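ugh ok fine here u go
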Amino acid sequence: MPFKSTMMTRIYLGGAMTLALLSLLVGEGWLAIHQYFFLPPELEGIVFCLVAALMAAWGCLELLGMARSKGLTPLTNITVVGVALIVGQPFWTHVGLGSQGHDSAKYLGIVVIGLMFMAAWGQARKLGPQETLANLSVTCFCFCYFGLGLMFLVLIRLQGAGTSTIIEQVGPVIMFLACVKSADIGAYFTGRAIGRHLWVPSISPAKTWEGFGGGVVLTIIVASLLSRIFGIMDMPMALLFGLFVAVTGQLGDLLESMLKRDAGNKDSAQLLPAFGGVLDLMDSVLVAAPFAWAIFEWTGR
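structure:
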């Protein structure tokens, strides 16, 4: 009974979240092709970016909570604000410095290093040298994990900037998110059905090689179908896209399992029944997004 109850909760709640996310993406795409009725064209995708920055900040707070459960005291304000700034970097560097999309990456190193030194200064003022290495490690990890992970998700959204239809605007990001979640779904149900050989039992006793394979297969199928429907890339590249997203997404899930196991937590938070917190929802996205963006760039999107 607990298994059936958990599975049905995942199905119903997952379906509702999928519908809400799809509505958000389609609505944001519609607003973008109308320039949001008041914004200049170069700010297409800004609403999506703001949502991504909010999710990054929320997930960051959950991870900082896990760090505090280990006795660490990372600085909350600079970490959360820094993560949000990195996520929005493709936009604010464009507005302030005249560089848009992936061209703004040339400023990324300056941004991250500047934030790192601001965090070090705040650490010095608050605690002096005490726990500097551990606290700054958590902060810098958040910058990379949440900041860069969701910045690349924003860059995937910007693959459709400048186009004239909703499908062209949000097709790439819908394809990516569908593939990431297909890996999770395929791994979950295949592992439940036929999983026998544990993948990394010291980290996650529920993950199996059969589940891993099921996630890869379902993701490749979804990537192939959506690439044809949206006209995003040819079939060989779609197969490669599905493979990379499935593998990196499941590695992202494994990374989060390591973090939770170290903190002694089952979930990053108790936000949603059978799902956990915001970090539990986007752990795969954070690691897979840079690789997916690279393939989109490779295909000339």
